[in-house]
């Protein structure tokens, strides 16, 4: 088993750039630091440093061990901060990654239970591609990731996917565009300008299949990874766009559009993805327990 005191001495020397400089910073004798690093190398069965002239430089393995040590001691500092924050009554950080295909209004609905907790929370939201967010989740830079699909099986991340809810999908258009359509829904979509979610959106394929099943072939004029950008184009009258019916009233109010109809068989689902260690975070538990349509957590360990 790794001796974390020895690992900390290795980390200090690597960050300082040498034993003498680390000795000056830590107040420990150079011989003590060298002995601790030698003991760690014996335990691990690898060389962490090599001589380059009069300097010590990290080996390739040493670089890898340093990366792990940086994360270990960063998490240790984070733990101390979290405990002191809780004891002092300050807001507990809740770091959330939101996949760029998840509508902002949906993200708010899903995160609302964490805001209502008696323990004060300070939400830090990051938006990005799902794979980028899962990378940050894997190294504990995020507490949870909100996505429109479970953790992909090809991702080298141990995690749990918690289904928070789902909604049928409706189609929206400006009053002017709506007035120009012919026929009843969904036939009115045939030949009409249509905006679609990008290829990364889980709902895209079911939508296309639904249109095909109804023998409706709209004219695709735009594809968007960012759902907010798609709605902005829809608000400008560029085309009809789909959105979760769960937030239809807000979509109509915010973007000045009308709901044309609902594809009831197309369901847009939303998930909270977390690593096992983070299941203890009170905000993660709150949003998982409050999901409108709960399901069992799925362990997606590769």
TrEMBL record:
Single GO molecular function: DNA-binding transcription factor activity
UniProt cross-references to Gene3D superfamilies, sorted A to Z: 3.40.190.290, Winged helix-like DNA-binding domain superfamily/Winged helix DNA-binding domain (1.10.10.10)
Domain HTH lysR-type residue range list: 2-59
GO BP terms in the entry: regulation of DNA-templated transcription initiation
Keywords, alphabetical: Activator, DNA-binding, Transcription, Transcription regulation
Similarity comment: Belongs to the LysR transcriptional regulatory family.
UniProt-recorded name of the protein: Transcriptional activator NhaR
């Amino acid at each position: 088993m790794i001796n974390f005191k020895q690992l900390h001495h290795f980390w200090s020397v690597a960050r300082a750039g040498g034993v003498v400089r680390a000795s000056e910073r830590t107040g420990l004798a150079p011989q003590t630091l060298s002995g601790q690093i030698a003991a760690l190398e014996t335990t691990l069965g690898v060389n962490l440093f090599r001589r380059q002239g009069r300097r010590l430089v990290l080996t390739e393995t040493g670089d890898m061990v340093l990366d792990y040590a940086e994360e270990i001691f960063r998490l240790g500092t984070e733990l101390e901060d979290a405990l002191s924050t809780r004891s002092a009554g300050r807001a507990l950080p809740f770091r959330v990654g939101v996949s760029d295909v998840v509508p902002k209004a949906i993200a708010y609905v899903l995160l609302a239970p964490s805001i209502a907790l008696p323990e004060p929370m300070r939400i830090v939201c990051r938006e990005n591609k799902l794979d980028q967010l899962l990378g940050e989740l894997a190294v504990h830079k995020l507490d949870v990731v909100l996505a429109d699909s479970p953790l992909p099986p090809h991702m080298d991340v141990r995690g749990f996917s918690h289904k928070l809810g789902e909604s049928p999908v409706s189609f929206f258009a400006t009053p002017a565009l709506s007035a120009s359509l012919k026929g009843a829904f969904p036939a009115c979509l045939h030949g009409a300008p249509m905006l679609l979610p990008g290829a990364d959106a889980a709902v895209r394929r079911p939508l296309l299949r639904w249109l095909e099943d109804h023998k409706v072939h709209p004219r695709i004029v735009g594809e968007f990874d960012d759902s907010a950008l798609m709605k902005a184009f829809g608000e400008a009258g560029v085309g009809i766009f789909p959105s979760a019916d769960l937030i239809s009233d807000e979509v109509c109010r915010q973007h000045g559009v009308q709901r044309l109809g609902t594809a009831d068989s197309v369901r847009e689902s939303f998930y909270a993805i977390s690593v096992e260690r983070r299941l203890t975070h009170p905000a993660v538990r709150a949003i998982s327990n409050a999901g409108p349509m709960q399901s069992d957590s799925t362990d997606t360990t590769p």
